[in-house]
Amino acid sequence: MQVPAPFDYVRATSVAEALQLLERHGEEARLIAGGHSLLPMMKLRLARPDWIIDINDLDELRHVTVDGGLLRVGALTRHADLLDSEEVGRLFPIVHDAERVIADPVVRNRGTIGGSLAQADPAEDLTTVCDVLRAEVVVAGPAGERTVPMAEFHRGPYETACGQNELLVEVRFPVRAGQGSAYEKVERRVGDWAVAAAGAAVVLADDGTIAEAAVGLTALGLEGLATDAAAALVGQRPGEEAFAAAGRLAAEASAPVEDGRGPVDYKRHLADELTRRVMRTAVARAGALTAVPGG
Amino acid sequence: MTTVQDRSAMPQEREPNPALSDPDRPIGYGRVQRKEDPRFIRGRGRYLDDIVLPGMLHGAILRSPVAHARLVSVDTTEALAHPKVRAVVTGKDLEGLNLAWAPTLSADVQAVLATDKVRFQGQEVAFVVADDRYAARDALELIDVEYEDLPPVVDARRALDPGAPVIRDDKEGQTDNHVFDWEAGDAAATDAVFARADVVVSEEVVYPRVHPAPMETCGAIADYEPVEGRLTLYETSQAPHAHRTLFAMVAGIPEHKIRVISPDIGGGFGNKVGIYPGYILAVVGSIVTGRPVKWVEDRSENLMSTSFARDYIMRGEVAATREGKILAVRTTVLADHGAFNATAQPTKYPAGFFSIFTGSYDLEAAHCSVTGVYTNKAPGGVAYACSFRVTEAVYLVERMVDVLAAELAMDPAELRLKNFIRPEQFPYRNKTGWEYDSGDYEPAMRMAMDRIGYADLRREQAERRDRGELMGIGVSFFTETVGAGPRKHMDIVGLGMADGAEVRVHPTGKAVVRLSVQTQGQGHETTFAQILAEELGIPPEDIDVVHGDTDNTPFGLGTYGSRSTPVSGGAVALAARKVKDKARLIAAAMLETRPEDLEWEKGRWFVAGDPTVGKTIAEIALGAHGTVALPEGVDGNLDAEVTYDPPNLTFPFGAYICVVDVDPGTGKVHVRRFVAVDDCGTRINPMIVEGQIHGGLADGVGMALMEFIGFDEQGNCLGGSFMDYLIPTAVEVPDWETGYTVTPSPHHPIGAKGIGESATVGSPPAVVNAVVDALAPFGIRHMDMPCTPARVWAAMQGRPTPPV
């Protein structure tokens, strides 16, 4: 048994109380939701918070609703909840693609979307998913709530716009008619961190060309979207030639580092390969959506 | 799951006598449900960490953060000031007790706590005893150690370079990192065959460092009673008797005052054979504090400091005719033994049974030479269900046969069939001196090929290749070497490799069998009850199996190298036969007839010619313990004890075929199918046999695809947690398809050969051969494990690289 360093524990009963506790205990306090990143780090004594603030009782943060043009997902929503939601899968198949390859069922039963985004691990999948879906996150703090676009929320490995005295409360995804999306990951084994992954979302124009595109990469050293790859796709007729160009640009935009999962050239190859794959799937899904009403 | 059971074509499993038992509850061999499972399933197993003794304290070990450094000072002042700390032990303290160094199982010494230098990352430096586990761990951070860094030796290939730092400067006269040279076979004869062969293939084949990674890590609870000077030591041990003897030798506590108890063990795979510094430190802690001390390592400690496995860099060569007759195999091996030579293997075999690298083939000549070296890595070497290095040997020869098949453009299954030792050649003496007891290889190979649909798969593969898809079919055929002794040839630190069993039939006809071997989850409580049941006709549920307590079991060397059934199984059968013979004398007295007039049927002696007149074992047992007038020289019990010294090893074998698909864009390997046909001789409990095979196959897929303990240039261990050391899950393995043939061992009392490690030995080459076969369109003939996506992709780019 690996034992963490000493810490104190408190259980919040409301968002307001969680914020007060964060304020009171300051820099050395950490929130815990699913705990699947924090607890292993604590057991290895790589993380040594003085206080653990448990937010698992905050039921108001556990919801999946479509509201106007937005899918609203509470920060405490478990991975398993997202995977169980047919509506999420229908509107955003990329979310189900990613959730299916996040760790294993035991982790998915406890881990939360808010925890994943806030941890901002460079190999974390939902950041890429939220990036390409152009999601926004809602952050609660002492001065109230603010909404932050993903592009501004994620600031680099383990760094976000969420302050020490703030709490991520919701993730909002704009629902886009005719959008197709997809995610694919390579891992050495189920539950391992990604060697690399890519996500894409596209909207097709009436003439079948690509009207909008977003491409994101996971564990490949790219912060935010692969904008050149997306730009090269817009206006193009979907096909292997366009996808190959996007793959090449995504690979160029990537900045992977060598580790036990693979060398740089392999990872850069995966940026290319996986971009082409997710584009194929995303376009096929968008085509299927637009094909239904159009006959 | 599918089981091939073509009974018409096959030797049959021994079925229970239907007149005596319900087929679902055989009295003897058959699919008896595991007697131990109710307690495991209900969470009532009792593992080491479940044991809580009154007043028990907790120990924790401070470990070296660096691979090679001089120990300048160890300051324990602050740790001792911690309010919950009861003792802090350093190497200096142990020096005073003459306990700083302990003998290893390979005639070397190992530091219990470092005194002069640290020699691998994770080496034991100090031991804290505290009121609870948390305080013990906290106090480790209060110990101030000053290290003076030394250059580490990480690459085994550089260990013998002139000027390489000398790791073992503690050893008198040691001026380099050389451990041993060892060879087997006839070098000159082999060279001569190679010189005249049509075809020679050669390849460097690396079996990288892996770890047994049992779910339960290692630990001990020492309870030293100072008034009587008695030590009770609870340990995660696969060999409790050997441990007790060694403790008596090392710690100076007389052997009769030591009791070693090995409770339920959560997996061993060889990891729990050796005596680790933590066990000794728990004893020291208990002596120093006068209280019981528990020490249980955490996952990282287990992966970083306990017995690893493999780490063999092998140059393999095969000589053959153009027609595909294999003539000779030659190999040189560089063996990385880590910082201390602590491998657990018979004394005369520093490379274990690696000389079985001649495999299942009838050769004209063979030779191997093995050089062991020290490096700044954790000690160990023989572990992970390897049958004393048979794993490395089988991997080498089975990989090389595929390399030869590629060179000759022959089908690898056909090439094997062409070269098998033929059934009439058994017992077969190979070119390195082993006598294979029995074998009939072709039927097993044919069964595996039929089962998987070999010809159809080859056709499918050709079609897929035309479409640019990468599909591979991997074949391996292995012969195992298990069940060591005989004791005259095989010992561990002077203790002969024999094992004991004691049988007692109670007055009511129930029985107890006491064993020297120790289960780690493989079902001994069932298997050994079934052996006794088969011999005496007592139902398995009426037989208690006792093991894991030196006070209550006969002496023996323990469970590893697939020894339990071949050795203690033989002892149980022979003890049962002694009981049966004695029962005949007593029955004769009870029936007022002569013993030679009695005949045996399972569970009963009866009068020849009048089967209605007889006595059951239960009646005889009551007679023996009751008032029956016993014949001259027969004492009043139905007990017997045997120490079984096997006349030879046993040689289980099997044919494995694996089918993989490789994603050409990512290099990811998917294991589509795996057929395993095993022959372990007599099958006592086919369900347990299959369970052992399933586990070993999963091990094999894990090693082939992902398991690897790597090190960086500073000697930092890169596999120190399950985040980095990957073991396979149900997702990575297919539904196993198993089949069997039965070729009993001619020299074993019940013809059983052992099955514990067959699948771990046989499956890695099948998987790697399949991956290499899939990559054949890229001109690849060899790639080393682990076949991770990145490494497979590199091979596809024409750059297959060794892992070390």
Give the DSSP E fraction of chain A (strand runs of 2 or more residues).
15-25%
Physical arrangement of strands within the biggest beta sheet of chain B: 4-8-2-15-12-13-14
CATH third-tier fold name of the largest domain in chain B: Aldehyde Oxidoreductase, domain 4
In the predicted model, the low-confidence regions of chain A spanning at least 5 consecutive residues are none
The order of strands across the largest sheet of chain A is: 4-5-10-6-7
Uncertain runs of chain B:
1-19
Radius of gyration of chain B: 27 Å
Strand tally of chain A is 13
Strand content range of chain B: 25-35%
Instruction: Label the overall shape of chain B.
Output: globular
Which CATH C-level class of the largest domain in chain A is it? Alpha Beta
CA-CA gap between termini of chain B: 37 Å
CATH superfamily of the largest domain in chain B: Aldehyde oxidase/xanthine dehydrogenase, molybdopterin binding domain
**Radius of gyration of chain A (Å):** 19 Å
Q: Specify which chain pair forms the largest interface.
A: A-B, 27 and 30 residues
Helices and strands, with pairings:
The complex is a heterodimer of chains A (295) and B (804).
Chain A: E1 8-11, H1 15-25, E2 29-32, H2 38-43, E3 51-54, E4 64-67, E5 70-74, H3 79-84, H4 86-91, H5 93-100, H6 105-110, H7 113-119, H8 125-132, E6 136-141, E7 144-149, H9 150-153, E8 154-156, E9 159-160, E10 167-174, E11 179-186, E12 196-204, E13 210-218, H10 227-233, H11 240-253, H12 264-294
Parallel strand pairs in A: 1-3, 2-3
Antiparallel strand pairs in A: 4-5, 5-10, 6-7, 6-10, 8-9, 11-12, 12-13
Helix pairs in contact in A: 10-11, 11-12
Chain B: E1 2-4, H1 37-41, E2 57-63, E3 69-75, H2 77-81, E4 85-90, H3 91-96, E5 101-103, E6 109-111, E7 117-118, E8 124-130, H4 133-140, E9 144-149, E10 178-185, H5 187-196, E11 199-210, E12 219-225, E13 230-235, H6 240-251, E14 258-261, H7 277-289, E15 293-296, H8 299-305, E16 308-320, E17 326-336, E18 365-373, E19 380-381, H9 390-408, H10 412-419, E20 428-429, E21 435-436, H11 441-452, H12 454-466, E22 470-479, E23 491-492, E24 495-496, E25 499-505, E26 511-515, H13 524-536, E27 543-546, H14 564-591, E28 598-601, E29 604-607, E30 610-616, H15 617-625, E31 639-644, E32 653-662, E33 669-679, H16 686-705, E34 736-740, H17 758-774, H18 789-796
Parallel strand pairs in B: 1-34, 2-15, 13-14, 16-19, 17-18, 26-27, 33-34
Antiparallel strand pairs in B: 2-8, 3-7, 3-9, 4-8, 5-6, 10-18, 11-16, 12-13, 12-15, 16-17, 20-21, 22-32, 23-24, 25-26, 25-31, 28-29, 29-30, 32-33
Helix pairs in contact in B: 9-17, 13-14, 14-15, 16-17
